[in-house]
Amino acid sequence: MALRLYNTLTQQVEEFAPLRNNTAGIYTCGPTVYDYAHIGNFRTFTFYDLVRRWLRARGYVLDHVMNITDVEDKIIRNALAQKKKLDEYTAVYEKAFLDDSQLLRLERPERLARATEHIQEMAQAIQALTDKGFTYCSDGSIYFRIASFPDYGKLSHNDFSGMRAGARVDVDNYEKDDARDFVLWKAPKDGEPFWETPIGPGRPGWHIECSVMAIRYLGEIIDIHAGGVDLIFPHHENEIAQSVSLTGKPFVRHWLHAEFLLVDGQKMSKSLGNFYTLRDVLARGYAPEAVRYLLASVPYRKQLNFTFDGLKSAETAIERLRNFKARVDGEKFQPGTNEKFLERTAQSAHQFNSALDDDLNTAEALAAVFEYIREANIAMDSGEFRSENVDAARDLLERFDSIFDVLRPSAKRGSIPDEEIEALISKRVEAKKKRNFAESDRIRDQLAEQGIILEDTKDGTRWKRK
Ligand code: AMP
Ligand code: ZN
What we know:
By secondary structure, the chain is of the alpha/beta class. It has three domains: 4-258, HUPs (Rossmann fold); 278-404, Isoleucyl-tRNA Synthetase, Domain 1; 418-465. The chain contains 14 helices and 18 strands. The chain has helices at 39-57, 73-81, 86-103, 119-131, 206-218, 232-247, 278-283, 288-297, 308-330, 339-357, 362-381, 390-404, 418-433, 437-449, and strands at residues 4-7, 12-15, 23-28, 61-68, 111-114, 135-138, 141-144, 169-171, 174-176, 182-186, 203-204, 222-228, 252-258, 261-263, 266-267, 304-305, 452-457, 460-465. The strands form six sheets. It has a five-stranded parallel sheet, with helices on both faces. A four-stranded antiparallel sheet has the order 6-7-10-11. Strands 15-14-16 form a three-stranded mixed sheet, covered by helices on one side. Helix 1 packs across helix 12 and helix 2 crosses helix 3. The longest helix is centred in the C-terminal third of the chain and has 23 residues, at 308-330. The two termini are 50 Å apart. Adenosine monophosphate binds next to helix 1 and strand 12.
């Protein structure tokens, strides 16, 4: 079965096939580097990672571009307040974003594109839009005239026909002819940074950034464009208006949007103050892979309510997976093959694949793996799981981990909470009692990786942090 993805534009689940050969051209809206990203942002970024990994598993070559928005009102305001140059200010948060992404095991896109490195190309695109009659000028700023683009609203399924041009509005202190019109180029204001370009001095609006960098690196028609649902309108709607007006071609073939991470039923956001950064969560002792697991475990089109209990469940789930892996790797099974169980394993692998092919249904994919683990543990306990069943079990775990990537413990030190250390030590004692030394060694190594040193004394096991 082919991979099927929900397309926001058509509101249908559609089979994915790239336009050019086997290469998937993907553009994802990246962070605005004005502060640390919160784990709500990382839900969307984790979703991008899942899209990448599953496309690769399905044999596609990836050509993925993500922008870094490093010029924007909040950035300018904060940099000015701290008397820093723009790039000096954004470097800190860009690095933090990349570090956090690495902790969450998010693969790096093939290209990261900084807005400030494409200003002249944006000015050129705005000039081209002006030449074609899609823009107007007001107080030195340049706007896109939505009335010149009849398809506006198709992505967000908004009907704008009732809205009339001519109702002048003042949004963000910019004069526009129509509430829907948006700024392509902002005239310099007192003390703010600006660029000299053939269309005059100023800086680009956010929307033109993405159109220009997407087309620059991926061509006029892009296979996949993704973001969080809050970007559907107006950001992506505006990207379509600009891009289609520029090229005369459809801009994107599959529009994918991830739902929100919520806190107590509300969107996690900077402005509501109900957010946690990855750093906040790790400081409480949670492992980054637990955050990754939690964010990945709910299908991307469903909202996900963040709780620390949810994170604890994610840790428990990861532990189950790791214990099972240790059992597969370390236990001695009776020789031979259990054909029926081989079939069962193949069936689970099939369920896992079908679930992800079905618009990345991660919850079902996980359910297939956990059901398999439950049955495999029973088969192992009863001796029905044989030595020649091991390879298939390993393959399934590998396939699982090539997408979810949680089996390897993070090396981050001191992040593991005391109770978890105690629990692992008790498990190790149990394992030793059963003379399962592979398991007891694995637990010791797992703790060592987290900087926890064990010392076996006649009074039991003592531990300390390195
Ligand atoms: P920003 O850095 O504000 O441009 O946001 C980066 C990405 O995070 C965008 O794709 C947003 O749609 C996404 N985003 C923001 N808040 C949330 C949230 N609470 N849950 C999921 N995604 C979010
Ligand atoms: Zn964008």
